[in-house]
Amino acid sequence: MTEPGEMDDARKRYEFKKTLEKLEAQEGDGTELITLYIPPDKQIYDVTNQLKDEYGQCANIKSKQTRTNVQSAISSILSRLKYYKHPPAKGMAVFCGTVKLYGDRTDLQCTVIEPPEPLNLYMYRCSSKFELEPLRQMLEEKYVYGLLVLDRREAYWGFLRGNRIEPIGGSTSTVPGKMRKGGQSAARFGRLREIAINEFYTKVGERSSAIFLAEKNFFERFKGLLIGGPSPTKEEFEAGNYLHHEVQKKVIGLFDVAYTNEDGLPELVDAAKDALSGMEVVKEKSFMERFLKELVKDNNGLAAYGEESIRKNLELGAVDTLLLSANLRKSRLKIKCQSCDYTEERTVSMPVGKTVRDIELGTCPKCTAPLVLDEEIDIIDELAKLADLSSAKVELISDDFEEGSILFSAFGGIAAILRYRTGY
Ligand code: ZN
Questions:
Q1: What is the CA(358)–ligand 1 centre distance, in A?
Q2: Counting Cβ atoms within 10 Å, is residue 25 exposed (0-12), middle (13-18) or buried (19+)?
Q3: 144-177+194-277: what CATH class?
Q4: Which of the two ends of the chain, N or C, has the fewest CB atoms closer than 10 A to its terminal CB?
Q5: Distance of CA 378 from the midpoint of ligand 1 (Å)
Q6: pTM (2 decimals)?
């Protein structure tokens, strides 16, 4: 079950990411795009004073066009700041400037963002691109898990960041196999083997500690360590105190996996499903697994996909869970005729950098007058609203795990698990 609050978070994150993508693609002709970061404790009048100062400094800009553009951007920011007595609780970021559009057009655009996490810097910058790094860092996963798979012959490390498994690297041991060479005494062989195993565990422990402790903000962000491998190796390793005590404290559990190379990492995450049950990756994965399981049944079982089919099923109230890829970059346009009562709706793709103004709307099929745009709405918002009408659940599915990327690539990013079959 999705809590309403969780969905809001996923949606907010999606909106935030999309806004950053849009800003990222924007470019000015000269150094005329202004980035302004205001932390929550900054006085607004300090900011306006600096902006007025910068406005005066513009006299030194040689290119007349750049000078005019920078001055318009500053004026535009100043007029927006009038509405604020104080910065918002988490501060604010303002991106303003004359950006290049499709073709030769340019437009003065201003975007004000209230970030999802507190901004702790003040910055004024004028450049040909917007400075987005401080916001981009907020998109990084709040929590990360450490992954370690090992047996006596090899070990492999990785991270689980949100839905994404990040492989780090592996190491192999020189522990001799169980078969001893002729002439060696069994006791001596056993001792040498024990020494080699201990050396390998020590090496794995040291490297684990180095990798995991180096994770930024380890104490706040590092949620836990999953250890996978055959028995009794992983138990032996965990019990032997080979890990730094801070890392050792974070061990969540030991899980049986067959592979101890890179392939062992997804296996480990799968095996640890229950331990990770609150996590987004597991939730999204289980929805996609249910969808794919239905799909292979006769007549696709309770699975449906494709925009047209999903719209029909939503209309009928037949959708149990709507699955939308967080990679969808599409808009639903409501279009009307300039002179008669003709209206239509159209789904168009909206890759970063494209705006609705770049779309040819064509002419009215009834009276041939030009068609005009009535409303543009992000397709995720639009479909989610339709889903709300019949209390269908909505899941945004990221594409950084296998089944998630299949939703985007093979099913157009729009699918559903149905309450009952409808034939659509
Ligand atoms: Zn018409």
A1: 21
A2: middle
A3: alpha beta
A4: N
A5: 25
A6: 0.65
